[in-house]
Design a protein that fits this description.
CATH class of the largest domain: Alpha Beta
Strand content: 15-25%
Number of helices: 11
Order of helices and strands: EEHEEHHEEHEEHHEHEHHHH
Shape: globular
Structural class: alpha/beta
CATH superfamily of the largest domain: 2-enoyl-CoA Hydratase, Chain A, domain 1
CATH architecture of the largest domain: Alpha-Beta Complex
CATH topology of the largest domain: 2-enoyl-CoA Hydratase, Chain A, domain 1
Largest sheet: 6 strands, mixed
Number of strands: 10
Strand order of the largest sheet: 1-2-3-5-7-10
Number of domains: 2
Radius of gyration: 19 Å
């Protein structure tokens, strides 16, 4: 099945928004999850983390969903936690809700990592605090040239969460991670790309189309193969060479006679695009 590109990926403006704080739409195998509090740069409020986890969990077991996109409404991707809400918890000397929120955030990022589909962060604007680390948790990241990034936790006396210590350090190394986390400075999309935090930066006027094209390419790919690549890359970060070679051997042997490999090789020999079907 080859998916259509028309009107797949239409980022929402503030005028398009409903009262739902997380929007979900699926078109021809691509699921789009839109964080929807543009009035506060899509900062998380109670219920949004749970909704995000539930949608990701549902997508993970739906064979008709071949790629997942996470993006933000309006002019921002996500500003992380709602600071006004956090200040209220401090007034009440209440850390129990903070613990609950962090637990759910942990479930979200672990679900992104373990689900078989590629998850693309489409970073349309500012990604700060937990919002930046949510983007880093995704498998691929495409950013508008107007996007900015900040590990801004230090500005309010807190440490990074949403897996930031893991994701950022592995991507940029300890020295740069220390700098970004200890100073909390903003970096633009060009610098984020130079550091390897995003895969692509595109002009804002072309962002929707380019994000759609990338999502489409992922959705058109061989689903079992992409799932195995995703697992292999994350295994490879912490595995020894013998462990990695063992995974490669077992996985290549398992996939060799599967339909994806048969179709891929047949299409190559026939000099045509491969057409990969959904797998139950």
């Amino acid at each position: 099945m080859t998916f259509r590109t028309a009107r797949l990926f239409e980022l929402k403006t503030e005028d398009d928004m409903s009262d739902d704080r997380l929007l979900f739409e699926a078109s021809d195998g691509v699921a789009i999850l839109t964080l929807n509090r543009p009035e506060v740069m899509n900062a998380f409020e109670d219920g949004m983390r749970e909704a995000l986890f539930d949608q990701l969990d549902a997508c993970a077991t739906d064979p008709s969903i071949r790629a997942v996109v996470i993006t933000g409404a309006g002019k921002a991707f996500c500003a992380g936690g709602d600071i006004a809400s956090m200040a209220k918890l401090q007034e009440d000397n209440d850390v129990s809700i903070v613990e609950t929120r962090m637990n759910i955030a942990g479930q979200v990022i672990q679900q992104i990592r373990r689900m078989p589909q590629p998850v693309l962060a489409a970073i349309n604007g500012a990604a700060a605090g937990g919002g930046m680390n949510l983007a880093l948790a995704c498998d691929l990241r495409i950013a508008s040239d107007r996007a900015v990034f900040a590990e801004s936790f230090v500005k309010i006396g807190l440490v990074p969460d949403w897996g930031g210590f893991d994701f950022l350090t592995k991507l940029v190394g300890t020295s740069k991670a220390m700098e970004l986390m200890m100073l909390g400075d903003r970096i633009d999309a060009t610098e984020a790309h130079r550091l390897g935090l995003v895969n692509r930066v595109v002009p804002d006027a072309e962002f929707r189309d380019e994000a759609a094209k990338l999502a489409r390419r992922l959705a058109d790919g061989p689903p079992e193969t992409l799932a195995a690549i995703k697992e292999g890359v994350y295994r490879g970060v912490d595995s020894s060479l013998p462990e990695t070679l063992s995974y490669e051997y077992k996985t290549q042997r398992r996939l060799f006679l599967r339909d994806d490999a048969r179709e891929g090789m047949k299409a190559f020999l026939e000099k045509r695009p491969a057409v990969y079907e959904n797998r139950d």
